[in-house]
Amino acid sequence: MGQGVHVQDLPGVGKRYDIDLGRADQRISVVMRSGGVRDLYVFASDSADPTAVIELSEEQARKVGAVLAATFFEA
Amino acid sequence: MEHADLVGLGSAVLLAGLLARLARRFGLPSVPCYMLVGIAFGPGTPGPVLVDHPGELSLLAALGLVLLLFHLGVEFPLDQVVGGGRRLFVAAACYIGLNVTSGLLLGLALGWGGSEALVLAGALGISSSAIVTKLLIELHRLTNAETPVILGIIVIEDLFLAFYLALLSPVLSAAESPAELAEDVAMSFGFLVLLFAVARYGARAVAALIGSREDELLAVLTVGLVVLVAGLSQEVGVSDAIGALMIGLVVSRTEIRERVERLVLPLRDVFAAVFFVTFGLTIDIADMDAVAVPVAVAICVTLLANVSAGIVTARLFGFNQRAAANIGLTVLGRGEFSLILATLAVGAGLDERIGPFIALYVLLLAVLSPLLATHSRYLARIMPDRVLRPGWRYVREETISTSCTHLDQIRVTRTDVDVCAACEALGDDWVELRLCVTCGHVGCCDDSPHRHASTHARESGHPIVQSLEPGEDWRWCFPDETLVRAPLGAQR
Question: Domain Potassium/proton antiporter subunit KhtT-like N-terminal spans what residues (chain A) (predicted)?
Answer without folding.
Answer: 5-71
